[in-house]
Amino acid sequence: MAATAKGDTAKRETATGETATIILEGKSYELPVVRGTEGEKAVDISGLRKASGFVTLDRGYENTGSCRSAITFIDGERGILRYRGYPIEDLAEHSTFTEVAYLLLYGELPTAGQLEEFSTFLNESSLIHEDMLHFFVGFPRGSHPMGILATTVASLSTFYPIPDQLDGKAERQILANLISQVRTIAAISYKKSIGEPIVYPSYRLRYVPNFLTMMFSSPVKDYRIDEDIVRAIDLFFILHADHEQNCSTSTVRMTGSSLANVYAVISAGISALWGPRHGGANQAVITMLQQILAEGGDGTEFIRRAKDRNTTDRLMGFGHRVYKSYDPRASILKRHCHKLLNRPGMTDPLFDIAQRLEEIALKDDYFLSRNLYPNVDFYSGLILRAAGIPYDMFTVLFAIGRTPGWLAHWREMYHGEDFRIARPRQIYTGPGARAWVERSKRG
Ligand code: SDX
Fold first, then answer.
1. Which one of 240, 320, 336, 409 is the catalytic residue?
2. Would you call 377 a catalytic residue per the annotation?
């Protein structure tokens, strides 16, 4: 089999007129070449099976572009991340999470008036139906809040049924419900887990102070808003807001492609995020650092185990499918950790261990030769610890931050020209056809 690209003119439009030739069983096929706005190139194999009988096989979809998307651009070799064309560094420095959510959903930074209107709409949509509070009583004590979040978000579909005709107004309401209510549900699940009465969202507070107040104020203690903590959580949400076709976002697109209810679609995304190879890594990093602290070492022994193919240990928060250099989000979070932990009375021995681990790993040929660098999760748990967020809530905060990104991808897919049910093929490796055997004659 051979594939060659003809022509090299990068154009804004994806249909370039270039083709790739593929030779299979001596027969040659011309396949269209498509290019993205930043020069990424792909061979469009959609017609290959029909023409040749061949499908492509791609473990973990490492070489598969599953869609066209205008939301987020990543250059993993150069450590570049942009939302709708804006560098993540600029958004992290100048924007708020609410503004970034608007940008992801609607493609442009909002004007001051649009932002005000959007924030107000989010606030007006933040209460969950009062009957939903019964659910929280039913979960067993100690339930993981990601399980509660996934279940409760799916149940929103029963309280807020989606009209048969999804017009722009109904769609805007669903998007606002999800962005706002994911945060309310997260705070309620925390309050229930510690046996405190729930705190309702306030119309007067912005997105992040509202969340922190629902989490930390109680009838006997007001939560005093600390602007440094608000900034840290806002930054955390911005950095997690989207990351193109990662595991949970691909889950959202795949589930959504069946035309499933959008609340169920986001619940599926939350479930995919939970695993320790994905969003659950922010908890796993802290567990790893605590283990190193308890063992009293500097991490050398842990790194030895992470490199050993006979163990399942991995250096959590390291490595990435796309980034083959430092994840730009990790650099921003590391800088912010320094800032937050430099405040009087704020130290964290785990931050020192994390920096030491990074130093050792980035001098080690195992990590260097495989391009394994810190990813977003390496320092994010440390920021959350410094902000007083409980350990069990770390992945929930990732989910809150990622909700606008999931919704932007769902919306893009739903309104896009490529919209077809996602249905990959397989290479069957089981037994060939065989005769059914009587129960008494088996074994
Ligand atoms: C997120 O995709 C996204 O965009 C995700 C995300 C987002 O914003 O949505 O960025 C968020 O999920 C970040 C990743 C969080 N996960 C972790 O930190 C868990 C630790 N990392 C790894 O498990 C791993 O690096 C992955 C899952 C992140 C990526 O896996 P890949 O692309 O399938 O890479 P691989 O497992 O095939 O690894 C390649 C090689 C292997 O060694 P060899 O077989 O070539 O000898 O690198 C080794 C791996 O064993 N390796 C590691 C390692 N990560 C990869 N070895 C030790 N420690 C690690 N962390």
1. 320
2. yes
